Each structure stands twice: as structure tokens, then as C-alpha cells.
């Protein structure tokens, strides 16, 4: 069974949105528990439940409180070392992709050994395809060609 592509936009229907919220909440909490168990890391998840008007803390309030206290006690530099804005994340991603593209380009040049690639070869100059405009005597009209001039009507 294949999965459908999910459209990431606000679900307009309240009942569908609430159903999706509860389903995804269960999935998120399951993943948090798996991460804690399999990797032996401290995981704390805090979610504000808009349907019940309350905070939901996983695995419990004490663990979440202790995690936030540990974070608050860290020096500012250590606390914000891995934090970044969306813009910073995007710029880093662009830089990495540009570096990968550069490496691929260099590999292609090495593989071609400077031959076989037309990207650096001089290209011929193509003459104008409309001979009627080339034979025009006098000053050239700078206006663009009309569609009817480019493709005259075909008469049977």
C-alpha cells in the first residue's frame, strides 16, 4: 500500500484537523520514546494542546522541568551553539549544495579531460533566419516582428 503525498497546509475542516492532530501527536510521542530508548538520550517534548487548553509534557513534568533547568544553566555560547534561524539554515544549505555542485563540476571536467565537452567550445554564430529582414534597405525598424510576419497565413 502506497502513501499519498501530504499537502502541508492548514487543514480547514475542524474535525479532520483534530483527528490529524491526535494521530500525529501519538506518532511524535512514539518517536520521542524510541529516540530515548534506542539512543539513551534525554528527550523532553512540550506541546500546547489547543483543543484542551493545556500543556502536554512528555515523558512527565519533572523530566521536562529538569531538562529546561539544564539548558538554562548552560553558558550562553554553549546553549546557542547549534541554534540558528530559518534564514541561517537556508544559507548553510545553499552553501553545502553549491559546494557539492562545484565538486561534481570538477569531476566532470577531470573525466572529460578537457575534451568531449561542448560547454567550453566556441559556438558558431547563427545568421538571422528571416532573409526578408536582412535584405531590407534603409534604417532597421526596432519594433519586434509581428506574429503574422513570422508565420504568414497559409492559403490552400
UniProtKB/TrEMBL annotation:
It comes from the Eukaryota. Its main location: nucleus. It is found in: Nucleus. The keyword Plastid does not apply. One of its GO terms (molecular function) is RNA polymerase II cis-regulatory region sequence-specific DNA binding. One of its GO terms (biological process) is positive regulation of transcription by RNA polymerase II. GO terms for cellular component: nucleus. Residues 1-48 form the MADS-box domain. The keyword Transcription applies. This is MADS-box domain-containing protein. It comes from Solanum lycopersicum. Keywords: DNA-binding, Nucleus, Transcription, Transcription regulation. InterPro entries: MADS-box/MEF2_TF, SRF-like_MADS-box, TF_MADSbox, TF_MADSbox_sf.
Amino acid at each position: 500500500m502506497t502513501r499519498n503525498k501530504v499537502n502541508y497546509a492548514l487543514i480547514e475542516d475542524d474535525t479532520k484537523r483534530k483527528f490529524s492532530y491526535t494521530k500525529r501527536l501519538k506518532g511524535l510521542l512514539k518517536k520521542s520514546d524510541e529516540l530515548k530508548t534506542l539512543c539513551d538520550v534525554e528527550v523532553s517534548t512540550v506541546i500546547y494542546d489547543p483543543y484542551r487548553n493545556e500543556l502536554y509534557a512528555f515523558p512527565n513534568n519533572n523530566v521536562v522541568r529538569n531538562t529546561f533547568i539544564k539548558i538554562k544553566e548552560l553558558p550562553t555560547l554553549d546553549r546557542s551553539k547549534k541554534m540558528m534561524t530559518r534564514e541561517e539554515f537556508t544559507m548553510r544549505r545553499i552553501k553545502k549544495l553549491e559546494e557539492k555542485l562545484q565538486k561534481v563540476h570538477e569531476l566532470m571536467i577531470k573525466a572529460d579531460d578537457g575534451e568531449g565537452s561542448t560547454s567550453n567550445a566556441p559556438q558558431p554564430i547563427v545568421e538571422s533566419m528571416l532573409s526578408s529582414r536582412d535584405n531590407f534597405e534603409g534604417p532597421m525598424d526596432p519594433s519586434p516582428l509581428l506574429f503574422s510576419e513570422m508565420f504568414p497565413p497559409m492559403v490552400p
